[in-house]
Design a protein that fits this description.
The complex is a heterodimer of chains A (about 400) and B (about 280). Chain A is built from 12 helices and 13 strands. Chain A is α/β, with parallel strands linked by helices and about 400 residues long. Chain A folds into 2 domains: about 240 residues, Peroxisomal Thiolase, Chain A, domain 1, CATH 3.40.47; about 150 residues, Peroxisomal Thiolase, Chain A, domain 1. In chain A, the strands form 2 sheets. In chain A, strands 1, 2, 4, 5, 6, 8, 9, 10, 11, 12 and 13 form an 11-stranded mixed β-sheet that branches. A two-stranded parallel ribbon of chain A has the order 3-7. In chain A, helix 6 crosses helix 12. Chain B has an 8-stranded mixed β-sheet with strand order 3-2-4-5-1-6-8-7, with helices on both faces. With about 280 residues, chain B is of the alpha+beta class. In chain B, helix 2 crosses helix 5. Chain B is globular and about 60 Å long. Chain B is built from 10 helices and 8 strands. Chain B has 2 domains: about 170 residues, Peroxisomal Thiolase, Chain A, domain 1 (3-Layer(aba) Sandwich); about 90 residues, no CATH class. The chains are: A alpha/beta (about 400), B alpha+beta (about 280).
Chain lengths: ~400, ~280
């Protein structure tokens, strides 16, 4: 059974919406810059922030009740609404649909603004009120209430592969006949909590990140949200919806190695990509482009490339990391990079691994300058999370 | 629709408040590095695995409403008290919700499907739904499915502020883990017939769903919706606890329940889980 993508929406450092994203990608314009909105002392660390303040985001969602003050929820709702509109759906069409949202910090951006006050009052009385309902599930519930009546709502939380895993559950539900249509993706706003968390692991770069370059020295954290409308072939045909792409395969595996590092031979990434190929019924040679996880840490980039070379020992397909554009959007990255992969498929280009000048492996270099007029058929999209939660998706051109 | 295979609950373990002695399953060094929720999760997971006789499951799927709350809270408190410097990396590393499933994967060296759900009081049901549909579709033949939550003093106070009728000390924490498989095990095989999660269902939609589960005149047992709501307020893992106790109550003896409908009403979701005792003759 074919799983169609019939709509998509995206919010990231590249801007609000699919059009802004496509323009930035084609112009090789990165969204990474100095921190502007996050309240942090680490001003030396560049980030990929959504170019809008909380007030501006709220204004984009205005007149719709209820409006959440959580940044994660606001950017999520904006991206999900774009995806639904793109698929030609209004909220009234959604009452049999499923929303699967990937997020890890949930409403942490809101919690941390009110935590000090609550701590001071020992979490008694009114001070505790702002800390209620900021968990992942509550954030998804709020987002759901801003987007439409859904039949079922759930949240995947596997760190940086959350959105990819949301898409996997969505596809499995459609295949099992449990849903005709699933809105799947993820959202994550920057929070002081995880910005500092990644910083304690000493894996953040003080320069704009350079995945797969010999000088790669860490991640830039970003924020964003993206959703895809996954739909059964039959449902799409019934309502005359045109597929943007096909989610033709996917794989989820566990590296089972370390809480925050990937094994040297990339066992988890290797298994995830192998499973994805198998589920799509494709041979490695069929893949025309890999949108890598490519965070820009030596550990990730080296083990990911090692895993790729295990699957493609002779000739590695063209690959790049688009985290040089968007920064690492953590839980949202699987969906953000799925939208980028679909744009690449539909507009026949391969976005560059920005700022990669001296590749770590000169014999298997990433795409260093955007390739235009390049026909793509099947794109592999990797997302690897803490704890070795590794997932790979294969997105194919709709015929 | 796929679903050629059946899905059985073949073992289970449940623990309530307090600390679990995991030294039966991990080294003292590993145990020392684990926070409370991890210890309970590891204990119940390994217990369910031991009973099932399966060493390495095809999938590890976990639900958690709040995740590793103690570590998250400590990390936030450190940021507030000491500023954004000299923070402890281990608190952050063991704060993400997927810490539990991935740590279980690391301990078991299990490279299979690994997944974590966090949808309030239906987190476990979400994990169960995933395992159920993959086992029925033949994607996997077994899965370790768990639900783990921990409460801190702060969380108890925050919940109390939202529900003043419940004293902070009355909120419970629990861990439960089950092995699901496509083949039954033992003399009391329980089939997981169906898992449904509904978001803000209308009374009509809920009624339809319940009716669809009690087809063929199967007698149902389980708690009322009002009781279900009260339970999920008291304990975030109420859906998992209820499945555990329902499995224990089902009995082949005359007069005892042969099937159960576990209803959970939590936040904006209602979950329905139908369990049926399969008669040993297979009829």
């Amino acid at each position: 059974m074919k799983i169609y993508v019939t709509g998509m929406g995206i919010v990231s450092a590249l801007g609000i919406g699919v059009d802004a994203t496509l323009t930035a990608l084609r112009e090789s314009r990165s969204g990474i810059g100095p921190v502007k909105y996050l309240d942090t002392v680490h001003r030396d660390l560049p980030a990929g922030e959504v170019p809008a303040s909380d007030a501006e985001l709220a204004a984009m969602l205005r007149a719709e009740a209820p409006v959440s003050r959580m940044r994660t929820v606001m950017i999520g709702a904006i991206a999900a609404r774009e995806a639904m509109a793109d698929a030609g759906l209004s909220p009234d069409d959604l009452c049999d649909d499923v929303l699967i949202n990937g997020t890890t910090v949930g409403g942490m951006d809101y919690t941390e603004k009110h935590f000090a006050e609550a701590l001071q009052h020992d979490f008694e009385g009114e001070s505790a009120q702002n800390l209620q309902y900021n968990d992942c599930g509550s954030a998804t519930d709020l987002m759901a209430s801003m987007c439409g009546p859904f039949r079922m709502v759930t949240t995947t939380s596997t760190a940086c592969s959350s959105a990819a895993n949301a898409m996997i559950l969505g596809a499995n539900m459609i295949k099992a006949g449990l849903a005709d249509r699933v809105i799947a993706g993820g959202t994550e706003a920057l929070s002081r909590f995880h910005f500092n968390g990644f910083n304690t692991l000493m894996i953040l770069s003080s320069q704009p990140c350079t995945p797969f370059d010999r000088a790669h020295c860490g991640i830039n954290l970003g924020e964003g949200a993206a959703y895809l409308v996954l739909e059964s072939e039959e449902s799409a045909r019934r309502r005359g919806a045109k597929p943007l792409a096909v989610l033709s395969g996917y794989g989820n595996a566990c590296d089972a190695f370390h809480q925050t590092a990937t094994s040297d031979n990339g066992e988890g990434p290797f298994l995830a990509m192998s499973k994805a190929l198998k589920s799509a019924g494709l041979r490695p040679d069929d893949i025309s482009y890999i949108n890598t996880h490519g965070t820009g840490t030596p550990n990730n980039d080296d083990s990911e490339l090692a895993a790729i070379k295990r699957i493609w020992p002779d000739k590695v397909p063209c690959y790049s990391s688009t985290k040089g554009f968007t920064a690492h959007t953590t839980s949202a990255s699987g969906a953000i990079e799925s939208v980028i992969s679909i744009l690449a498929l539909r507009h026949s280009f391969v976005p560059a691994s920005l700022r990669c000048v001296n590749p770590t492996d000169p014999d298997h270099a990433p795409v260093m300058a955007t390739m235009f007029d390049t026909k793509l058929t099947h794109v592999m999209n990797n997302s690897f999370g803490f704890g070795g939660n590794d997932s790979a998706l294969i997105i194919s051109k709709a015929e | 629709m796929n679903g050629m295979n059946k899905c059985y609950i073949i073992s289970g373990s449940c623990l309530h408040d307090g600390e679990a002695d995991v030294r039966k399953y991990v080294t003292p060094g590993e145990a020392r590095r684990m926070c409370r929720i991890l210890k309970r999760a590891v204990y119940t997971s390994f217990e369910a695995l031991r009973q099932s006789g399966i060493e390495c499951p095809d999938a590890i799927i976990t639900g958690t409403s709040m995740g590793c709350m103690e570590n998250s809270e400590k990390f936030l408190t450190d940021i507030c008290r000491n500023g954004e410097q000299l923070l402890k990396p281990t608190l952050f590393m063991q704060s993400t919700h997927n810490t539990i499933a991935s740590m279980t994967g690391i301990l078991l060296k299990c490279h299979g499907y690994n997944m974590t759900y966090s949808q309030g009081g239906v987190s476990f049901t979400s994990a169960l739904l995933d395992a159920w549909l993959q086992i029925r579709a033949g994607e996997i033949s077994n899965a370790l499915v768990g639900c783990h939550d921990e409460l801190t003093d702060a969380i108890r106070k925050i919940r109390h502020a939202a529900h003043p009728e419940i004293a902070p000390a009355d909120f419970r924490e629990a861990s439960a883990a089950f092995m699901l498989a496509s083949e039954p095990l033992g003399d009391k095989p329980i089939e997981l017939k169906k898992v449904i999660i509904l978001h803000r269902p209308s009374p009509r939609r809920l009624e339809e769903a319940i009716r669809s589960l009690s087809a063929k005149g199967t007698p149902l047992s389980g708690c009322s919706e009002a009781e279900a709501e009260a339970e999920s307020l008291l304990c975030a893992s109420a859906d998992a606890e209820s499945v555990y106790s329902a499995c224990r109550r089902l009995s082949p003896l005359p007069g005892e329940p042969k099937s159960a409908l576990v209803v959970t009403r939590a936040g904006e979701s209602v979950s329905l889980i139908k369990l049926t005792l399969v008669s040993p003759c297979g009829c």
